[in-house]
Amino acid sequence: MNKGVIVKIGSNTSHVLAGEQILVASLKGGVLKDKTPLVGDIVEFEMIDEYKIMIVKIEERKTELYRPKIANVNQVGIVASLKEPKLDHYVLLKMMAYLNSQNIETFIIFTKKDLLLEEDEIIKNQITWFEKLGIEMVILNNKEIPTKDFKKLEQILKDKITVLTGQTGAGKSTTINHFLEFEDQIKTQTISKALNRGKHTTTSIQLYKLPQNILLADTPGFSSFEIKNISAELISSTFTPFQDMYYQCKFRNCLHVKEKGCYVKQALENNELAQFIYDDYKKIISEIKPKKETTTWKK
């Protein structure tokens, strides 16, 4: 049976990548009874003609993300601009906390390095702290990516399905455009300096087939989001910046806020942890209401 990956979903048809070819697909009656197709789904299909196919089966999903709606993703890249809009480390860390709690591999793409000035020492210091914590990241000049930075990003993406997520105007589409031919590039818009936010240009999810067996998804940006149905205990035990410290806390269910014998708080006092990261973490925990723990991923 022929197989492919859904890369785009329209109102009546889907687009399926089979080898190097994009085919227009319709659904065989009865397929929708089992599950609704998502971008990223691996499907079995029958040929109708040279460019049209009929999807007859959606294979079992390895992972399923509901926000954004996409299946079989291997990792998520959190895209954060350093300026225009200025770096919002709270939103970045909140997204990381959410993805960590769902056992999703994450990395950071910092964009617009070319806009940093000598006096932007606070931002530069914050980047240094992320590096000290061993969080995988790439820092890009989005006007022209140096070869070494491009190759580093390419290696992270190689042989994987990756979703880029982040605030509106952070540079998700621009980052993908560095991989695409001009005629395939995604439309982007300028930043509203008065509001320190970008304008929505990506309105739907699409997977792009790139060299090195890369499948990369652009997603609509956001200005804010809420963590729902996830316990504070799960966040505290999975938060990447605290991973090497969590198991050294005196109590296994330590929330790193008021508990005695907390190694995270000790690291903060010893200047082994940045104050802004700890403050953002406490704010994330304070916003989480006691609820039954659930997951938005299926494995």
Automatic annotation (TrEMBL):
One of its GO terms (cellular component) is cytoplasm. Pfam families: RsgA_GTPase. GTP binds at residues 111-114, 166-174. The keyword Cytoplasm applies. One of several proteins that assist in the late maturation steps of the functional core of the 30S ribosomal subunit. Helps release RbfA from mature subunits. May play a role in the assembly of ribosomal proteins into the subunit. Circularly permuted GTPase that catalyzes slow GTP hydrolysis, GTPase activity is stimulated by the 30S ribosomal subunit. Belongs to the TRAFAC class YlqF/YawG GTPase family. RsgA subfamily. This is Small ribosomal subunit biogenesis GTPase RsgA. Its main location: cytoplasm. Monomer. Associates with 30S ribosomal subunit, binds 16S rRNA. The gene is engC. Binds 1 zinc ion per subunit. It comes from Williamsoniiplasma luminosum. The lineage of its organism: Bacteria, Bacillati, Mycoplasmatota, Mollicutes, Entomoplasmatales. Keywords: Cytoplasm, GTP-binding, Hydrolase, Metal-binding, Nucleotide-binding, Ribosome biogenesis, RNA-binding, rRNA-binding, Zinc.
